[in-house]
């Protein structure tokens, strides 16, 4: 058994029931653990149709704070359940929708990457999306990241547009309106300490202490990576607006080549370090790794409107 | 030194030069010091007399700390408030082996200073031993020009202060080498209330050093971000103490 990744679209509560109920009932009849992660309304619908016995309703919204955190949390869950004897784990849920200014927030990479990351786990996954509200962006990602699509009438078809993880085209990060304005701060070839101090000076009146500390950590890790692995010139730019901050750490190199950079921690290495990209993806920040022909940019956004922080 | 004399301390001026030369240098500080020299409240010592040695050039850390404590006791017996020393320790910090010994002495004497009226201003000539060597020892003091500090004060085993990042990984490794093996307990408590920043690379360094030394490290007074990072890294030997 391996990871079975299926998606479906529903246009009504009846269609939602037609999709989710057989899935959950299949798990229950097999005596296997089933986890559902939907908003409160849909979770209550499931309870009304199927009861609660044997169903694990995910209520921890922090689990979906970032794609990387969701991967870590579910990987730990799958490992624990299979070690306890589960022959298969069933999971059905929904992902955050498009956030204005943030697009799908990296969840496109998540939906594709888990096809590879969880391939060795005996997991059956059903991701359901509301067809009446799903954005064209999300529908496109769903069709390209799920090998098969479940229909409410019970049929399951191959997704003609499915892209294997190694070939998946991630969404282009949504430009931030601040980026077309002059940055408040620009430093070239700054060492991590200088970069941190500059970001603190620029953002201390914009962000609360915790958000600022998270941003400073991410900036430091990005600048360190630029110095260790990037090419000069290495440029730090900071934009601020009321209650939010945008930071670019850019160098003339290629950036990380690992398609799963940030989503998974690297394997333990002989030398310390190597976890900067993954670490910044754990924080309540919007993180974008932007590759261009002549440069690589880590974009970090914090404050109001940041999906992970809300 | 003047502050020490004003506070009733015995002051000691130490260098790798003949005593007569040291005394001449001290007299430049003015009549207060001259008078103290005459009264015996200020003295000079050669490096050879100040420290205890293991061989010709290596400081013996425990013996040297014991000598400092004895000198402090003698100062107290004479009615002084305590002992303060200004020490040019360049000559015992030239080689890596010497600095390892001095580094251990600095850490151990810091513990002694936390419970005895003993103080010191340690000087290292950067032009003679180089900036890296000077930084290696400077960071072991509660007050020094250093991006970070790793020292003992009060009843807590250690304090970690300042900022540790790409610019100071090597210095941090050497500081841990000097300090960690001297921790008497199985768990080394590090107060982080003055730690402004530490990146994940440095935290993993700390974890690996602790494992090699057979110790555990408990970080106290961490901010929320540091606590989160330690948790995410799933370190083997480093934990965060829950807030009081």
Would you mind describing this structure in some detail?
The complex is a heterodimer of chains A (310) and B (244). Chain A is of the alpha/beta class. Helices cover 34% and strands 22% of the residues of chain A. Chain A has eight helices and twelve strands. In chain B, 45% of the residues lie in helices and 24% in strands. The longest helix of chain B has 18 residues, at 96-113. In chain B, α11 links the parallel β11 (216-220) and β12 (238-240).
Oligomeric nature of the chains: heterodimer
The number of strands of chain A is 12
Structural classification of chain A: alpha/beta
Order of helices and strands of chain B: HEHHEHEEHEHEHHEEHEEHEHE
Distance between the termini of chain B: 39 Å
Report the β-strand fraction of chain A as a percent range. 15-25%
What does the main sheet of chain B amount to? 6 strands, mixed
Helix content of chain A: 25-40%
The number of helical segments of chain A is 8
* Rg of chain A (CA only): 21 Å
**Chain-averaged pLDDT of chain B:** 93
Look at the structure and give the mean pLDDT of chain A. Answer: 92
Largest sheet of chain A: 7 strands, mixed
The backbone outline of chain B, from C-alpha atoms, is elongated
- Note the gap between the termini of chain A: 37 Å
Structural class of chain B: alpha/beta
- Share of residues in strands of chain B: 15-25%
Name the poorly predicted regions of chain A.
none
Spell out the blueprint of helices and strands.
The complex is a heterodimer of chains A (310) and B (244).
Chain A: E1 4-10, H1 13-30, E2 34-37, H2 40-50, E3 55-57, H3 67-83, E4 89-93, H4 107-117, E5 123-130, H5 136-145, E6 148-150, E7 156-158, E8 185-188, H6 192-203, H7 209-229, E9 235-241, E10 244-251, H8 276-280, E11 286-292, E12 295-303
Parallel strand pairs in A: 1-5, 1-6, 2-3, 2-4, 4-5
Antiparallel strand pairs in A: 6-7, 8-9, 9-10, 10-12, 11-12
Helix pairs in contact in A: 1-2, 4-5, 6-7
Chain B: H1 2-6, E1 10-15, H2 19-27, H3 31-39, E2 42-46, H4 47-50, E3 53-54, E4 58-59, H5 61-77, E5 83-88, H6 96-113, E6 118-123, H7 126-129, H8 131-138, E7 148-153, E8 156-164, H9 169-179, E9 187-191, E10 195-198, H10 200-213, E11 216-220, H11 224-233, E12 238-240
Parallel strand pairs in B: 1-2, 1-5, 5-6, 8-9, 8-10, 9-11, 11-12
Antiparallel strand pairs in B: 3-4, 7-8
Helix pairs in contact in B: 5-6, 6-9, 8-9, 9-10
């Amino acid at each position: 058994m391996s990871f079975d990744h299926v998606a479906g679209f529903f246009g009504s509560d009846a269609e939602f029931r037609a999709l989710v109920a057989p899935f959950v009932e299949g798990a229950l009849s097999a005596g296997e653990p089933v986890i559902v992660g939907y908003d409160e309304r849909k979770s209550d619908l499931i309870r009304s149709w199927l009861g609660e016995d044997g169903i694990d309703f995910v209520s921890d919204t922090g689990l979906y704070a970032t794609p990387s955190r969701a991967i870590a949390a579910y990987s730990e869950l799958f490992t624990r359940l299979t070690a306890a004897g589960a022959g298969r784990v069933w999971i059905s849920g929904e992902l955050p929708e498009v956030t204005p200014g943030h697009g799908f927030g990296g969840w496109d990479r998540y939906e594709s990457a888990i096809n590879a990351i969880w391939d060795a786990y005996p997991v059956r996954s059903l991701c359901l999306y509301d067809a009446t509200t799903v954005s064209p962006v999300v529908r496109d990602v769903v069709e390209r990241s799920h090998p098969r699509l479940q229909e409410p009438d019970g049929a399951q078809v191959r997704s003609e547009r499915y892209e294997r993880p190694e070939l998946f085209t991630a969404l282009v990060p949504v430009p931030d309106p601040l980026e077309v304005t002059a940055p408040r701060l620009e430093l070239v070839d700054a060492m991590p300490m200088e970069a941190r101090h500059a970001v603190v000076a620029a953002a201390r009146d914009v962000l609360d202490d915790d958000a600022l500390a998270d941003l400073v950590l991410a900036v430091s890790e990005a600048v360190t990576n630029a110095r260790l692995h990037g090419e000069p010139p290495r440029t730090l730019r900071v934009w601020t607006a009321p209650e939010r901050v945008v930071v670019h750490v850019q160098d003339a190199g290629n950036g990380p080549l690992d398609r799963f950079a940030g989503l998974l921690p690297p394997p333990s290495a002989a030398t310390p370090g190597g976890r900067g990209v993954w670490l910044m993806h754990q924080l309540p920040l919007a993180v974008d790794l932007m590759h261009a022909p002549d440069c690589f940019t880590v974009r970090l956004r914090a404050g109001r409107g940041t999906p992970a922080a809300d | 030194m003047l502050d020490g004399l004003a506070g009733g301390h015995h002051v000691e001026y130490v260098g790798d030069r003949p005593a007569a030369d040291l005394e001449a240098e001290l007299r430049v500080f003015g009549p207060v010091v001259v008078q103290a020299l005459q009264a015996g409240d200020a003295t000079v010592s050669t490096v050879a007399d100040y420290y205890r040695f293991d061989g010709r050039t290596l400081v013996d850390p425990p013996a040297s700390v014991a000598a400092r404590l004895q000198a402090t006791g003698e100062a107290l017996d004479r009615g002084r408030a305590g002992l303060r020393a200004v020490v040019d320790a360049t000559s015992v910090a030239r080689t890596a082996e010497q600095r390892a010994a001095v580094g251990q002495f600095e850490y151990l004497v810091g513990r002694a200073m936390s419970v005895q009226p003993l103080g010191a201003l340690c000087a290292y000539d950067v032009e003679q031993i180089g900036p890296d060597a000077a930084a290696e020892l400077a960071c072991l003091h509660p007050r020094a020009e250093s991006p970070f500090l790793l020292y003992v004060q009060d009843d807590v085993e250690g304090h970690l202060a300042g900022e540790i990042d790409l610019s100071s990984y090597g210095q941090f490794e050497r500081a841990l080498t000097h300090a960690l093996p001297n921790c008497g307990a199985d768990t080394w408590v590090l107060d982080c209330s003055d730690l402004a920043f530490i990146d994940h690379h440095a935290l993993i360094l700390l974890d690996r050093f602790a494992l090699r030394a057979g110790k555990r490290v408990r970080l106290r007074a961490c901010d929320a971000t540091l606590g989160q990072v330690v948790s995410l890294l799933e370190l083997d030997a480093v934990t965060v103490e829950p807030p009081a």
